[in-house]
Specification:
The protein is mainly beta. It is about 5% helix and about 50% strand.
Length: about 400
């Protein structure tokens, strides 16, 4: 980045190589001396009041509580702009300003004070938003409305303010499971590595909706084809791209599987090449697939399963992207909601909702193996972990 060029000029200028631009900003985060762990929480139960800040020690893998970063109503999922100046949180509620809708809140990150400064708040366009993401240029944000069965996109101004929805898609229909799939349930919004598409996981309709993205306006239009169809009753929940940009990993909540998908960036299509289970063949109790994360080199992947309360470590084939299970162990608590690697990738963190804890596992970068016994830190109803 040249002197005098702001973050948007740099990232837009790198539109032909957005992965390189994203990596530049990633390096800035890894090299920063001051690290802050921001935790989105559920405030409906427990004692949480909003988003919490923890000082992070990358050498020891120990967080120390800085305090309440921002009071907020049920801020269950968080997303930062690429330069970490602004943070966006979904407010997973069903009544916003008298409408049957949740909200998306915008904040400025004050690293020195370990606080978040409120900027503005807008309707999410549907009830119970469960996920928020930001594009690679920091000009667009997206949310998945689980309760409302819809997805919305928003324009982000240079000062961090979030606009009202500029695109909104209401889904219709149901899946084969009448208890879990009586209606659409959008669960995750993921921007493609080249910043040209948005993918929306729909647990209720067993599909991933695919949209063309215009980052200059944040507007979306359906792809052709407009979706990838998963196995009936599988419930696609989470999605993560491999660093090579050619493979995506979809965690199916109801089937407790990871579907390995080839991504064609020219046509905006997905094709399944593998499906692996997160639970043992002889386990027949309650189970829900949760989340997945990969290291920056794409050599190892880690997935979580709720109810069975486990973490599964996979090696990733460097050519095909297929997964091979290396280990299965405890997630260090009850009902994991979100996984993340710290900026050094020496530590894997797990937000365990029902045990009111954050578990920190030591990680061997060469073998991918996790420590058997994590360090445990108290946090009421943690839902999402983000490093600034």
């Amino acid at each position: 980045m040249t002197k005098g060029m702001d973050r948007r000029e740099f990232l837009r200028g790198a539109a032909v190589a957005p992965a390189a631009a994203q990596d530049w900003w990633s390096r800035q985060g890894r090299d920063a001396k001051r690290r802050l762990l921001l935790v989105g929480t559920q405030t409906v139960t427990g004692t949480s009041k909003g988003i919490y800040a923890w000082h992070w020690n990358p050498e020891s893998g120990e967080p120390s509580l800085a305090g309440l970063a921002a009071a907020s109503d049920n801020p269950t999922f968080l997303a930062l702009t690429p330069d970490a100046r602004y943070l966006y949180a979904v407010n997973e509620i069903s009544d916003f300003e008298g409408r049957k809708s949740g909200a998306v809140s915008a904040f400025e990150v004050d690293l020195a004070a370990s606080r978040l400064k409120p900027i503005n708040q807008v309707s999410s366009g549907g009830a119970g938003p469960a996920n928020v993401s930001v594009d690679h240029t920091g000009t667009a944000a997206f949310c998945a409305n689980y309760g409302g069965g819809s997805a919305s996109s928003f324009y982000l101004s240079p000062n961090g303010q979030i606009s009202d929805a500029v695109s909104h898609f209401q889904y219709h229909g149901h899946g084969p499971n009448p208890q879990r799939q009586e209606a659409p349930h959008a669960h995750r919004v993921t921007v493609s590595p080249d910043n040209r598409y948005l993918l929306v996981n729909d647990l209720g309709l067993d599909c991933i909706h695919i949209y063309h993205l215009d980052p200059l306006t944040a507007k979306l239009k359906p792809g052709d084809p407009p979706r990838w169809q998963a196995s009936p009753g599988s419930g696609p929940r989470a999605l993560r791209f491999h660093p090579n940009g050619r493979i995506a990993y979809c965690v199916c909540e109801m089937a407790s599987t990871v579907d390995v998908l080839e991504w064609n960036p020219q046509h905006g299509t997905l094709h399944q090449i593998q499906s692996v289970s997160l639970i043992p063949a002889d386990y027949h109790g309650p189970t829900r697939g949760c989340d997945i994360v990969l290291d920056r080199h794409g050599h190892f992947a880690y997935a979580a399963n709720r109810d069975y309360n486990c973490l599964v470590t996979f090696s990733v084939d460097r050519k095909s992207g297929k997964l091979t299970m290396l280990a299965r162990g405890s997630c260090g608590g009850r009902i994991p909601r979100h996984l993340t690697l710290d900026p050094t990738e020496k530590w894997l963190l797990v937000a365990n909702e029902e045990s009111d804890t954050i578990a920190v596992f030591g990680r061997d970068e060469k073998t991918g193996r996790l420590a058997e016994s994590p360090k445990i830190y108290p946090q009421s109803r943690p839902q999402c972990l983000v490093f600034a």
